[in-house]
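#lab-general

N.A. 3:47 PM
ok so I finally got the sequence cleaned up, no stray characters, all 122 residues accounted for. can someone with queue access submit it? mine expired

B.Y. 3:52 PM
send it over

N.A. 3:53 PM
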Amino acid sequence: MQVYEGMPAVRSVLPSIFGTELGAVIGRRIDELSEYLEVDDPSFLRVIILEPIDALTTLHDVLGFSLVERNCDVIESHEEWFELTLVLRDDGAGVIVYIPKSLTVDPGLLSYCHTQMELLSP
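B.Y. 4:20 PM
back already:
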């Protein structure tokens, strides 16, 4: 699991994932969030990139709450990744979690993603 606090830290990971779907997705998200003045504040944005071996309980520890006890605000399904956005404060601050679509991913994480896709689909 990789955790990045604040926009500068998120930008720093882009060179290492350039040319991948994850790099393109995070790059687009950075462009969208760059409109906000608060993005350089490390408490405004946290990005978590899970590895296929990461457990749901590990994610709960990093988030500081149980993911399955709340709905995400936005979920997007990409070819190789789920992208979960959770807004945690009224000013829009939050966390974006990237979960790989892999057979080795914790089944609880994949189940959560599929349930959220159903709940949030138009």
